[in-house]
């Protein structure tokens, strides 16, 4: 059964809230880290999440929806992260970011089949490959710290 674009809006907004939360969390992490190589990698991840916010917002509008204006679960994570950021070392910061990337990857996998065909194709072509790339970057960064 083909899903309608209108029924995809809630799922797309859930993805959008996750991306907005990721942007918030990366910004907090970048304010904390000093290592230039790590900062560069985290800035790349931040830009990728910012682009996903733009792509998802634009797509939601194009199918007649109103993009979410506030972050979701990662937003709560960002607030917790901010509260404890001073106490987290670089390893813990990177591990926390990787956990967020795991969550994002799993959300996309779990809910992809709830989307209409055009939305699913957009995610498979543009959004999910970027999610996998940022997840891999954080995983590699975490391994390099051990």
Please supply descriptive tags for the structure shown above:
5 helices; single chain; 146 residues; Ferritin; mainly alpha; 0% strand
Give the name of the CATH superfamily: Ferritin, core subunit, four-helix bundle
Identify the quaternary structure here.
single chain
Total DSSP E strands: 0
Sketch the topology as an H/E string, one letter per element: HHHHH
Number of structural domains: 1
CATH fold annotation: Ferritin
Q: Level of helix content? A: over 70%
Shape field: elongated
Main sheet specs: none
Secondary structure tally, helices: 5
Structural notes for this entry:
This protein is mainly α. The protein has one domain (5-145): Ferritin. 81% of the residues lie in helices and 0% in strands. The protein is built from 5 helices and no strands.
What's the arrangement of secondary structure elements?
Elements (H helix, E strand, L loop, with lengths): L4 H28 L3 H27 L10 H12 L5 H22 L5 H29 L1
Helix pairs in contact: 1-2, 1-3, 1-4, 2-5, 4-5
Provide a concise account of the structure shown.
The protein is mainly α and 146 residues long. The protein has helices at residues 5-32, 36-62, 73-84, 90-111, 117-145.
């Amino acid at each position: 059964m083909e899903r309608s674009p209108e029924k995809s809006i809630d799922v797309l907004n859930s993805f959008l809230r996750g991306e907005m939360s990721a942007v918030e969390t990366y910004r907090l992490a970048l304010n904390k880290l000093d290592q230039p190589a790590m900062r560069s990698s985290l800035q790349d991840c931040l830009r990728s999440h910012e682009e996903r916010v733009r792509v998802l917002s634009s797509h939601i509008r194009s199918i007649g929806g109103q993009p979410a204006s506030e972050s979701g679960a990662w937003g709560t994570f960002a607030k917790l992260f901010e509260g404890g950021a001073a106490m987290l070392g670089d390893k813990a910061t990177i591990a926390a970011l990787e956990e967020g990337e795991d969550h994002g990857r799993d959300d996309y996998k779990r809910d992809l089949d709830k989307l209409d065909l055009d939305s699913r194709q957009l995610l498979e072509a543009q959004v999910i490959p970027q999610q996998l790339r940022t997840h891999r970057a954080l995983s590699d960064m975490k391994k390099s710290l051990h």
